Input
Amino acid sequence: MPDTDLGAAVQDSHSQVDIAMLAEAADVNGIYEESIDNLKYRKPANKEKAKVVTERERQMAAVDYYANVRTNVSCLR
Output
């Protein structure tokens, strides 16, 4: 079982459920504390450089937006 897995329940063909869990509560607490630390000290994700938008793409985005608005308005009638 992986270190960060808290357990699993699996049902077999005879409707019996087998549960695999960590042996001690200390194991669960350790995983919880590690997860909290990861959230507190998370490094920012590398964002890709902003895509350069051409004038043509900007115009097409505006046309698509207004086409969508017209569609939604006509659906309301």
